[in-house]
Amino acid sequence: MTAGTGEGGRGWRAAAQDALYGPEGFYRGPGKGPVGHFRTSVHASPLFAGAVARLLCRVDEALGRPAVLDFVDMAAGRGELAAGVLSALPAGVAARTRVYAVELAGRPAGLDHRIEWRTGPPERITGLLFANEWLDNVPVDVAEVDAAGVPRLVLVREDGTERLGEPVGGAQAAWLARWWPLGSGEGEEGGEEVREGVGVGEGLRAEIGLPRDRAWAAAAGTLARGLAVAVDYAHTAAARPPFGTLTAFREGRETMPVPDGSCDITAHVALDACAAACPLPGARLLSQREALHALGLSGARPPLALASTDPTGYVRALARAGEAAELTAPGGLGDFGWLVQPSGIEDVLDGRRAPG
Ligand SMILES: C[S@@+](CC[C@H](N)C(=O)[O-])C[C@H]1O[C@@H](n2cnc3c(N)ncnc32)[C@H](O)[C@@H]1O
To answer: Which of 73, 223, 335, 352 is most buried when burial is the number of CB atoms within 10 A of its CB?
Structure first.
């Protein structure tokens, strides 16, 4: 914690909500949008949109090729994924597809007129809802264990200095106990006993993912039939980061989180909790590496023999392999989590299927 003295400050959730989405918020202004500050899989390579287009085609088949197929790019940034998927679809599928870009920022100039720009998802989706790096930007409160072993809300001032507030209570305390036990180990079988005056786990921190669970349940709940997918930096109960992951990005660099609208404020997502929050059965978590492999993307180098028979093709295949390797890299984008939530269709990301 950046130690602060005195009073003032509010919970990280309210502070980040204004800093990101208020009238002067980081995400509301004109300009390049997220791509000016960090690179997501969407910006890393058009192969990503191509893989999502193949996923949409599989959903289309599983749905029995409906007359109208929906594709929802949830938290669309500047609509780059929506546009990329539309241009990668076979013409016959594209002609039946309604593409929605759901985003709080305004519609960018020059976006394909076939893409409908909206601030919320349509009510009943038959198709694919895809949320790339949305949930990590849904603001959350932060808890930190004090010297007595009690998890308290972290309050932050506009300059980024923090202090501890009230003990975490109510639904937030219940969420911590179930998904990210801290300090006293309350709610945890075999949790450590707290003795008066003795701090247990002082300084441990957690991001309270409740608003993300609710946001995901609401978005996935718009699915009449099809698939909802959330892709993000993620962790699960087996390996929560002991001090949380709250951080910020500005112009390509990681920086101290300051809720003044000057930077992106983000924290990794407890995707297992999001999965459980959605009442639909059949949710599955896999890594981006597994998901993209199942969609036929591979970072394998092309055969060297191609270099002599088709040098141009070889160079193109090599560049493609490099981009695929970045999207699936261990320790990088390949470790992202994919939360896959089918509704009324089979598992179309089963790795045993033939890719394509
Ligand atoms: C990290 S960017 C990701 C952009 C894009 N999906 C990509 O992968 O490049 C997060 C985006 O989520 C948008 N966002 C956050 N909450 C939202 C909400 N409730 N509805 C729509 N967009 C939202 C932000 O405005 C921002 O553009």
So the answer is: 73
Tokens of 271: 């995707």
Are 260 and 16 in contact by the 8 Å Cβ rule? The answer is no
Q: Which residue has the tokens 């070889």?
A: 314
Amino acid 190: pLDDT = 39
Rounded Cα distance, 167 and 287, in Å: 35
Residues 94-115: tens digit of each pLDDT: 999 999 999 999 999 999 999 9
pLDDT of residue 194: 43
Tokens representing 226? 């099809």
Ligand 1 centre and the CA of 116: distance in Å? 16
Closest residue to atom 17 of ligand 1, CA basis: 75
Q: Give tens-digit pLDDT for 112-129.
A: 999 999 999 999 999 999
Ligand 1, CB within 6 Å, residue ranges: 27, 34, 40, 42, 75-77, 80-81, 102-105, 132-134, 137
Under 8 Å between Cβ of 267 and 207: yes
What is the mean predicted confidence (pLDDT) over 175-193?
67
CA distance 192 to 119: 45
Give 133-173 pLDDT, tens digit per residue: 999 999 999 999 999 999 999 999 999 999 999 999 999 99
Residue range 24-53, pLDDT digits in tens: 899 886 665 666 677 899 999 999 999 999
220: Cβ–Cβ under 8 A, 6 or more apart, which residues?
Answer: 129, 228, 278, 280, 341, 343
What contacts 15, CB < 8 A, 6 or more positions away? 9, 139, 156, 158, 259
Q: Which atom of ligand 1 is nearest to the CA of 102?
A: 21
Our mutation pick for probing the ligand 1 site, out of 20, 38, 137, counting the most ligand atoms within 8 A of Cβ, is 137
* Nearest-angstrom CA–CA distance, 349 and 126: 17
Phi then psi for residue 99, to 5 deg, are: -110, 125
Q: Which residues contact 175 (CB under 8 A, 6 or more apart)?
A: 208, 209, 210, 213, 273
pTM: 0.92
Sheet holding 247-250, edge to edge: 253-255, 247-250, 264-266
Q: In angstroms, what is the span from residue 273 Cα to ligand 1's centroid?
A: 20
